Amino acid sequence: MIxxxxxxxxxxxxxxxxxxxxxxxxxxxxxxxxxxxxxxxFGTAITLPEGFEIELPEIKGGLIGPKVSGxxxxxIGDSILASTSSRYGNEMCDALVPLGWQVAIEAEASxxxxxxxxxxxQRLNAEAGWDAAVVFLGTNYEGNKDSYAKQIRKIVQKLAPxxxxxxxxxxxxxxxxxxxxxxxxxxxxxxxxxLLDWEMISKAKGVLNNDGVHLSPKGRSVFAxxxxxxxxxxxxxxxxxxxxxxxxxxxxxxxVMPEPVDTVNEPxxxxxx
Length: 273
Hints:
Blueprint: H1 11-14, E1 19-22, E2 30-31, E3 34-35, E4 53-56, E5 72-77, H2 79-82, H3 91-96, E6 102-107, H4 114-126, E7 132-136, H5 145-159, E8 164-167, H6 176-189, E9 193-196, H7 198-201, H8 217-231, E10 240-241
C-alpha cells in the first residue's frame, strides 16, 4: 500500500489528546498522539481521550477498509456496543462517520450470541446493501463453548463474503477465555474475517467501569477509536449514522447504561442502498 503524506492537523485537535501507538510491522505512518491511516488521498486524526496512552494491537486478518468496495457497515453487539450508539453518547458514529462509513448499530443490553443471527435474519433479508460488519458478542455467555462457537460461526457464514471484524471480550471472568478462544478460532477459519483484540486494550486503566465489564465514559471513546483503527477509511466519504432497528436495553442492570439522549439520529438521504 502506497504511503501518503500526513495531512495538516490543527493544533487544536492535538491539544489534550492521549498518546496513541499503533501496533504492527512499523510500516504505517504514525504521528505521536495521532494514528495515521495510510493509503488514501486524505488524512484523518484518530485521538484517544486525555490521559490515555495505549498501544493498539495489530489487526489480525488486516484492516477492513481496503477489502471493501462500499461503505455500508452493520455493527452487532450487546450493551457494550449499545452504550456507544446514538441513543447515548454517539461515540461510535462520531469516530466512524468522518472516515466515510455509513453505520447501523444493532445492539441491545444482555444479548447472547444468537442475537446476532436474529439481527441478520431481519437486516440482511430486508437490505442487500451491507458491505462489511463488526460483531461484538460474547460478554453474555451461557458457558457452552461449542454452542457459542457455533453461533459465531453461523453469523460469519451469513455475512460471507463480506469482510467481518470480530471483537474479543474483556477478561472479567475465567470463562471469557473460552469465549475469546472461540472467537480466535472462528476468525482464523475465514479469509474475510479480521480480529480486534479488545481483551488486550481493555486492560488499560480507566477503560472499564468498576464492574470490569462495561465501558467507562472515556472507555467508550477508546473503544470507538479502536474500532475506527481496525476499520480504516471507507471507500467513499459520504458517511452517515443510520437508524437502528434493535434498541431495547430494558434488560440492562441498574446504572449499566449511560444516560440516554432525547433524540436518536435518523437516516439521511444517503443512507439507503
